[in-house]
Amino acid sequence: MTTVAIVGCTHAGTFAATSILKQHPDWTVHVFERNDSLSFLSCGIALWVGDHVSDPKRMFYSSPKALAEAGATMHMRHDVLDVDVAGKVLRARDMNTGEVGEYRYDKLVITTGSAPVVPPIDGLDEALESGRVLLCKNWDHAMAIKERAGSAKSAVVIGAGYIGAEIAEQFSEIGVKTTLVDALDRVLANNFDATITDDVEQAFDEHGVTLALGQKVTAFRPAAGSDGIEGSGVTVVTEKGEYTADMAILGAGFRPNTALFADQLRMLKNGAIVIDDYMRASLPDNTVLDDVFAAGDSATVRYNPTGADDYIPLATNAVRQGLLIGENIVAATKRYPGTQATSAVQLYDLAMSATGLTAGGAKRRGIAAKSTTITQDYRPDFMLTTTPVTTTLVWSPVTRRILGAQFLSKHDISQAANVVSVAIQAGFTIDQLAGADLFFQPNFSQPINFVGAVAIQAVAES
Ligand SMILES: Cc1cc2nc3c(=O)[nH]c(=O)nc-3n(C[C@H](O)[C@H](O)[C@H](O)COP(=O)(O)OP(=O)(O)OC[C@H]3O[C@@H](n4cnc5c(N)ncnc54)[C@H](O)[C@@H]3O)c2cc1C
Questions:
Q1: Residue 115 CA, ligand 1 centroid: distance in Å
Q2: Residue range 191-223, pLDDT digits in tens
Q3: Domain FAD/NAD(P)-binding: where (predicted)?
Q4: How far, in Å, CA of 305 to CA of 338, rounded?
């Protein structure tokens, strides 16, 4: 009988366990997880802070009990201390008893995910220890943020990516005076071009969020909090100023949690385990390992707009890759189709969605790209109401292929990014998208839908 060891169980681990057990109900599947819960949807943290969550317990879609019932041997509150990849054995410490056990396995599944980036900034370690600065990733972090947000009058959020922007938005909505700091000179700078982020910055401004952009944080210092909680209060020092608040949230990105496998497996420079189309890891010399799989935030993705291995920590990738492990654990049979890193976010009344490369992202990677932007109402103006959609299409002037798209509107345009995502995955050119069959019906769309319209405009500009 085959024995599998799964290390880490949030999204990639949960989906890997269920897919393996579905295909091989008679196998022994050991699941090791440090936490006492699994499958936590971190995307709900900001929404919970803003009281948009019906019941925080519903931010989990599975449980140790459910996986045990599916046939897994669960080792919750177990910290995997080391893994001998070549020897097929690992050691895990029971965090309740302190006991260390040794486990032999035939196949290894690495779903250890990611950890928040904690840059080496003066005073940060102490600020994290004392709770003046909080991280935003797992259930424990979520509870700490929710509790503090109940009494804090002010906050500094460091990092204006999706996570920082969403937290800052919700803080401002519940009356916490918020400063949003980022080293880059725009909010959401890695996800959207300025055609979109200018409007977002205006929305932050209108809601009283102070934007402190284009400035690196250089130090954290304890300060007197105004919420009466001992040990609260922090001054965030940047290259351009000092911001004092009752609490700070650090959202400076994520790094793969793969130290256990250093020097044993091939990794990108940042520590992401390089996997092939069948989720198989390889030795540092590139030899593919048939019995070692990785998925989710601990691993690379194939990024279709560039065709290269990349690091894009998203639950969508973790889920799809985790599922594929069950399909490929005996033999390489089902290929991973890659990702466009398609995503969406709602800030105030602005809906935004994106897929593939931004113009800025293409430039950073040295890829020739042109960008076409249009703004048109999503449906005809004979309707009693309508509202504009700003659409940016990023495309290659060399191959004419679509590289990316971004959308912003007060209307729900989230599905538009999914349409272009599929087009990129299928290798569409701007000409193909311009001629694609997209419906017209006045409740929903113009005679020429904004997705087709931007492609037609790109063809005209080519
Ligand atoms: C605030 C926030 C909002 C987000 N919003 C979205 C969103 O809207 N859409 C989206 O697609 N993505 C979103 N993401 C990203 C998404 O949450 C991650 O991509 C996803 O959690 C990755 O899942 P994973 O299972 O690969 O890794 P992780 O979630 O990092 O889980 C890894 C697990 O491994 C365990 N582990 C690690 N090492 C060990 C060890 N040695 N022993 C035992 N256990 C170990 C950890 O305890 C953890 O439970 C968001 C992330 C955050 C933080």
A1: 8
A2: 999 999 999 999 999 999 999 999 999 999 999
A3: 3-322
A4: 9
Q: What is the DSSP code (8-state) at residue 287?
A: P
Summarised one tens digit per residue, pLDDT across range 160-197 is 999 999 999 999 999 999 999 999 999 999 999 999 99
Can you point out the beta strands (E) in 24-138? 28-33, 72-76, 78-84, 89-94, 100-104, 107-110, 114-116, 133-135
* Ligand 1 binding pocket includes 414 (Cβ within 6 Å): no
Q: Which residue has the higher pLDDT, 226 or 118?
A: 118
Active site residue 207: no
Contact 393, 450 (CB under 8 A): no
Question: How many degrees, rounded to 5, is the angle at CA 95 between CA 94 and CA 100?
Answer: 35
Tell me the C-alpha distance between 18 and 12, whole Å.
Answer: 10
> Residue 438 above 80 pLDDT?
yes
Percentage of residues in the chain having pLDDT higher than 90: 98
Structural domains of the chain, ranges and CATH numbers in brackets? 3-43+52-115+254-328 (3.50.50.60), 124-250 (3.50.50.60), 343-461 (3.30.390.30)
Q: Whose CA is nearest to atom 19 of ligand 1?
A: 314
**Is 11 one of the catalytic residues?**
yes
Tokens for 217, please give them. Answer: 């944080």
DSSP one-letter string for 170-222: HHHHTT-EEEEEESSSSTTTTT--HHHHHHHHHHHHHTTPEEEES--EEEEEE
Handedness of CA 56, 60, 61, 65 (dihedral sign): negative
Ligand 1 pocket, mutate which of 297, 353, 414 (most atoms under 8 A from CB):
297
Q: Would you give the DSSP letter of residue 209?
A: P
Question: How many angstroms separate the CA atoms of 300 and 275, rounded?
Answer: 6
- 122's tokens: 């003066």
